[in-house]
Structures are given as structure tokens and as C-alpha cells.
Amino acid sequence: MSETIEQDSVASVHYTGTFVDGEVFDTSDGRAPLSFLVGHGQMIPGFEQEILGAKVGEKREFTLTPDRAYGERDENAIQRIEKNQFPEGMELEVGMVVGAHSDQGPIQFTIKEIEGDLVKADFNHQMAGMTLRFNIEVVEVRSATDEELAHGHAHGPGGHHH
User: What is the pTM of this model?
Assistant: First the structure.
């Protein structure tokens, strides 16, 4: 039974993520810890790299530059979409995050501007281009089950889907 986070282990961590200015964007405070299968792309790359080798009870703090988090912003990811492409009667507001389906599967974009019949949509991840700080505490580490490895994700306590 491994007590250290490594490839193919299931790690449970308490975490708080903050922007460089200290604003918290996500935390497990007051909730169950986050469990995930290490090394299968469930988490942003830098997060996984930084917690490898951590032991149960260990606390770590790390800062991820955009290339290790959600990537740099790509100005080509801003597109104009005609209003008639949106569902009829949908209230469109600047700053709204809209889910859509694409050939590559579900995507999200943020409405940046509305100019007449055109909507300026930003397909960058909302945290693209941002440097993120994390504080984590390792709560539990266990080996993944064969089923979890086959599915590529953790199944939570007891190894079942939620």
C-alpha cells in the first residue's frame, strides 16, 4: 500500500487555488477532498507534476505558470458568431459562459461583446494566461483498482461511480 503519490495512484487532497493577487478561485474547504487518478490527464499538468512524491499528511504550495496550467491565451480563439446561431429566445449577456457542442465534443466560451447581430465569443479557457497558486494537503493515497485504470479516472470511496 503506497503512502506516496505516484503514477496510477488515487490521491485525495484538500486544496485551495488562488490567483496571484490572492483571490481564491477554487477550494475544497468545507467539502470532501478531491480524489483523482494520478497521471491520466484528469488534472492540469503542473498540478500532477507538483504533487508527485507527496506523502499522506504532507502540505505543498506551488505556483503554476500558464504553460503548466490552462495554457496561454490564444487570440485566434476569439470568434464572431451570428446571433441566429444561438437558441431562440436565449438571453445573451457579456461575460456569460455558454456551453456548446463541437465536432471535438463539448466546449465552452465566454461572450466578450455583442455587436448588433454578431456575438464575439472567446473560446480560451477562462483561466488561460493566468498564473495559479495552489496549497494542497494530501489526505489519502491508495493504489488504483484495475477498473479505475481501465476507465482512466477514480471512482471515489469504495471504488464505485458517484
Answer: 0.81
